[in-house]
Amino acid sequence: MSMDQTFFLSRRRFLSLAATASAAGLAGCVSPNQQVIYSDPRRPITPPPVGPSGSRTPELDAMYGQIEDGGFVIPAVPYWKIPSRFYRQQVVDPTGEAPGTVVVDTPSRFLYLVEPGGMAMRYGVGIGREGFAWSGAGVIQWRQKWPKWTPPDEMIARQPELEQYSSRNGGMPPGLMNPLGARALYIFQNGQDTLYRLHGNPEWNSIGKAVSSGCVRLLNHDILDLYERVPTKARIIVWQ
Fold first, then answer.
1. pTM score
2. 181 pLDDT higher than 50
């Protein structure tokens, strides 16, 4: 079977399962069961109940509250201003992929980390603007805590003010305003850097929208969680 046929069949399976998962996973969205961290099953956690948008709970306050990491204080997220479907939560896996695979569902603005037992961790994401988005399959080849940000020359050509952060000038230091946020996962395809990243993001109101220059952005709180769960050199698939 060719790669194109495999991609088509996987995509068709994804779409067929999505409708089923939306019904079967609805209860999991409202009152999910115990979830287990894929990368360390010794550390089970109980996810917070996800209520309607605009509501607050002590559990969600704790999950998206102010935290300290790596010498930086990450501000609390006003999560009640974000549609509740984009909160981090465990759901029935709609992808059919092997455990440990990361799947980005671009149209729905979701990222899934497939877990054993037919479940997945789901995160809300912001994605690239039309014309900047990347799709296909690759590998998370490298990961970094509080990374520097180095805009590619093509971006600097469009936005000359970014020259100060070019590779020639050492990039932008890590920090709360760095576009890559608290963590970055670097995507390679056929051994080559795609310049496509999964990364943190200080702009909570970009979740669920198409705003970034090609990369997938998560809340800083969520990229911290994903970073600890995702296996080394995990396979990643991005649907358009």
1. 0.76
2. yes
